[in-house]
Design goal:
The complex is a heterodimer of chains A (105) and B (118).
Chain A: E1 4-5, E2 9-12, E3 18-24, E4 32-37, E5 44-48, E6 52-53, E7 61-66, E8 69-74, E9 83-89, E10 95-96, E11 100-104
Parallel strand pairs in A: 2-11
Antiparallel strand pairs in A: 1-3, 3-8, 4-5, 4-9, 5-6, 7-8, 9-10, 9-11
Chain B: E1 3-6, E2 10-12, E3 18-25, E4 34-39, E5 45-52, E6 57-60, E7 68-73, E8 78-83, E9 92-99, E10 105-108, E11 112-116
Parallel strand pairs in B: 2-11
Antiparallel strand pairs in B: 1-3, 3-8, 4-5, 4-9, 5-6, 7-8, 9-10, 9-11
Classes of the chains: A mainly beta (105), B mainly beta (118).
């Protein structure tokens, strides 16, 4: 299985820039996707294929990376961005990262 | 509008089985695969398996082979997942989710919470 590793939690102030990382145990080309999940809700697609903004997602969200190292950036962070963010690869059988919980100071 | 409508939450006894459904609307059911994903309480997401309704082909995460069985009914645009020999480890929210051609998941069901308890 392709293991995806994320840092468990981050805390930032509104208006700041935050970068959330995801490292794959093997290369996944550009087939890395990012989701936002709020408590009690299903995940929502933010970024597909590393850097493409999903429909309806604010331009404050962006993605970068290829191979094994990927980053989701939110700039500027807003209060509504409090959530858990997951990466997912589809180069091999799908796997998800453990999630990064973003809290606002 | 694309919608994946899942069946209701379940309370089941240890050792029993449960079968849940996922009715798709707003798109051609046979054009896309359907994933099933597990989310344990306070945990991350695990891929259980995928069914391709057009050709009735399934693939499973090795961890869930023998635990989950995926089927689909093209006549009713509905995907099903049956979980067998349930234990407390199976208590979780289960999502159906439709991937697009990139493998990212545009559409998710609302989730079914399965609680295994005597």
């Amino acid at each position: 299985d392709t293991v995806l590793t994320q840092s468990p939690a981050l805390a930032v102030s509104p208006g700041e820039r935050v970068s959330i990382s995801c490292r794959a145990s093997e290369g996944v080309n550009s087939y890395m996707h990012w989701y936002q999940q709020k408590p009690g809700q299903q995940p929502k697609l933010l970024i597909y294929k590393a850097s493409n903004l999903a429909s309806g997602v604010p331009a404050r969200f962006s993605g970068s990376g290829s191979g094994t190292d990927f980053t989701l950036t939110i700039d500027p962070v807003e209060a509504d961005d409090t959530a858990t963010y997951f990466c997912q690869q589809s180069w091999n059988d799908p796997t998800f990262g453990g999630g990064t919980k973003l809290e606002l100071k | 509008e694309v919608k994946l409508q899942q069946s209701g939450d379940e309370l089941v006894r240890p050792g029993a089985s449960v079968k849940m459904s996922c009715k798709a609307s707003g798109y051609t059911f046979t054009d896309y695969a359907m994933h099933w994903v597990k989310q344990s309480p306070g945990q991350g997401l695990e891929w259980i398996g995928t069914i391709i309704p057009l050709i009735d082909t399934t693939s499973y995460n090795q961890k869930f082979k023998g635990k989950a069985t995926l089927t689909a009914d093209k006549s009713s645009n509905t995907a099903y997942m049956e979980l067998s020999r349930l234990t407390s480890e199976d208590s979780a929210v289960y999502y159906c989710a439709s991937p697009n051609s990139t493998g990212s998941i545009d559409y998710w069901g609302q989730g079914v919470m399965v609680t295994v308890s005597s």
